[in-house]
Amino acid sequence: MRKEDGSRQLLVPNIKAAEQMDFRQFWLAYEDVVRKARSGKLAVEDFARTTISLTNPGTIGTMHSVPRLMPGQGCIIGVGRDGVPPAAYLGASAETLARDAISQTVTLTSTYDHRIIPRVAAPVRRAAEDHQRAAPRR
Question: Which of 4, 77, 93, 101 has a Cα at 20 to 30 A from 127?
Fold first, then answer.
């Protein structure tokens, strides 16, 4: 979001019950959140009950970070500065980068609440077991 002074701010509202929506419903909910963000009309409720979110400290030059969870969050993904060579090649000349075929990188980190894993894994495990039971035997 661009503020009045021209600076930008990362806002991370969420779309509630996205897993229950078809594509059109999701798109309309997404457009509503974007409209509210651009008009400065986001409310606390727009940020509440976020399961997973994204932070981008890379915009301030940070290459690697460990994001902190807010109460109630399950996971946060941190995106480091993009378009930089690996640490061993920082400050290397363009010739060295080309000679060694070094490409640019971006670092992704995540912090998650380990207590959500059993809740997420249980339905997946049950579905796999159901599929296995339903598979024809040879």
Answer: 77
Q: How many structural domains is the chain composed of?
A: 2
Provide the CA 34 distance to its chain's centre, in angstroms.
17
Does the annotation mark 114 as catalytic?
Answer: yes
* pTM of the predicted structure, to 2 decimals: 0.51
Residue 87: both structure tokens together: 């640490």
Clarify whether residues 44 and 74 are in a common domain: no
Q: Can you give the residue range of the structural domain that contains 129?
A: 50-134
Q: What is the pLDDT of residues 22-46, one digit of tens each?
A: 999 999 999 999 999 888 899 888 8
Contacts of 55 (CB under 8 A, 6+ apart): 10, 12, 65, 67, 76, 77, 78, 79
Whether 56 and 122 share a structural domain: yes
> One of 8, 24, 41, 114 is an active-site residue; which one?
114
How does pLDDT run across 56-73, given as a tens digit for each residue? 777 777 777 787 777 777
Distance CA 30, CA 27 (A): 5
CB 108 within 8 A of CB 79: yes
